[in-house]
Design goal:
The protein is mainly α. It has five helices and no strands. Helix 3 crosses helix 4. The chain is globular, with a radius of gyration of 11 Å. The protein starts with a helix and ends with a helix.
């Protein structure tokens, strides 16, 4: 997949901010754990869950991947 396609797909799959938090909490993961998996710091995940900022580029792709994997583990749909 090309980078532009991957980012476009990730933007489409990114859940709304309240759902991002719900997915993480249902999986029992901390913001710090999600941040480490996404390659960012905890404050970035915090802002993404509040909706004050939106992940971009490779961080977006990594974050959506983490959310999809957590959602699959918990059986909670996005």
């Amino acid at each position: 997949m090309t980078a532009i396609y991957t980012r476009a797909q990730a933007r489409r799959l990114l859940p709304p901010p309240p759902d991002r938090r719900r997915i993480r909490l249902d999986a029992g993961a901390s913001q710090a754990e999600v941040a480490a998996e996404s390659g960012v710091n905890q404050s970035s995940v915090h802002r993404w869950e509040l909706g004050t900022t939106t992940p971009r580029g490779s961080h977006l792709v990594a974050y959506v991947d983490v959310l999809l994997r957590l959602s699959a583990i918990t059986g909670v749909p996005q």
